[in-house]
Amino acid sequence: MVSAVIVAAGKGTRMGPNIDKLFLEVAGRPVVAHTWQRFVEADSVHEIVVVVRDGMQSAFAELAEEHGLNKPYRLVIGGAERQDSVWNGLESISPRSEIVAIQDGARPCTSADLINATISAAREMGAAVAAQPVTDTIKESEDGKMVSRTLQRSKLWAVQTPQTFRVEVIRRALTAVRHRGLQVTDDTAACELIGQSVRLVSGIAPNPKVTVPADLAYIELLLRQRK
Ligand SMILES: Nc1ccn([C@@H]2O[C@H](COP(=O)(O)OP(=O)(O)OP(=O)(O)O)[C@@H](O)[C@H]2O)c(=O)n1
Ligand SMILES: C[C@](O)(CO)[C@H](O)COP(=O)(O)O
Q1: Where are the domains positioned within the chain?
Q2: Which residue has the least CA distance to atom 4 on ligand 2?
Q3: What ipTM was reported for this prediction?
């Protein structure tokens, strides 16, 4: 059995005050309704856990109703950091789940094909992540003012979601993160702590995250092109 955990319990601070970015309408639907719909369409996913802020349960239940998101789902309360929300989601997937795909609610352009591809790769390797080679040259800076060094671009990948795992692998990896009191910005970073290899699954289509207001016009265009 395959579960999806859609993390949607963030505050969206980079989008600006008093804006719930996941409920902003793009291409005719709220951002998170597009994301959720992709997991309804992905045949290999059997159940969906949506992790939400406390007090938002009825808004998400109404969203599912209104947009016909008809795959079995459960709503769970998130935590202070993304990794806490992922943990809470993992705690409530079915005990029969062997594979879990973790998805940012704020990534509405993820395709069902990409979801299915990460699931196949995770079955084989234990862990897999949607990723694209970077196209800009990436610099490191120690102080945020001056360039310290240039990284070798041919080795660099930007990782996205879905990040998909055998359930026992991600549980073990996130337990290691919690025991060491670390913070990770993505779930595959936790795998590095336990020596678990992660397969890069290169998506051809753009799979951006809604983070700042300037992201919205591009994402609207991508979603309209796909219709
Ligand atoms: N405590 C948190 C933090 C983030 N997320 C989710 O993780 C995804 C990726 O996070 P990001 O884009 O950073 O969203 P926010 O944390 O909401 O944004 P910001 O950092 O600007 O506050 C989002 O779907 C967000 O809802 C979550 O479920 N729980
Ligand atoms: C998981 C992620 O989307 C991979 O790129 C990203 O790390 C989320 O980071 P954020 O700080 O929650 O935006």
Answers
A1: 2-226
A2: 160
A3: 0.96
| Dihedral in degrees, nearest 10, Cα atoms 159, 164, 167, 171 | 10
Nearest to 10 by CA among 39, 49, 53: 53
Using the mean position of ligand 2's atoms as its centre, give its distance from the Cα of residue 189 in Å: 11
Q: Looking at the structure, give the CATH architecture of the domain made up of residues 2-226.
A: Alpha-Beta Complex (3.90)
d(CA 19, CA 23): 8
User: What pLDDT tens digit does each residue of the chain (227 aa) get?
Assistant: 999 999 999 999 999 999 999 999 999 999 999 999 999 999 999 999 999 999 999 999 999 999 999 999 999 999 999 999 999 999 999 999 999 999 999 999 999 999 999 999 999 999 999 999 999 999 999 999 999 999 999 999 999 999 999 999 999 999 999 999 999 999 999 999 999 999 999 988 999 999 999 999 999 999 999 86
53 CA to centre of ligand 1 in angstroms: 11
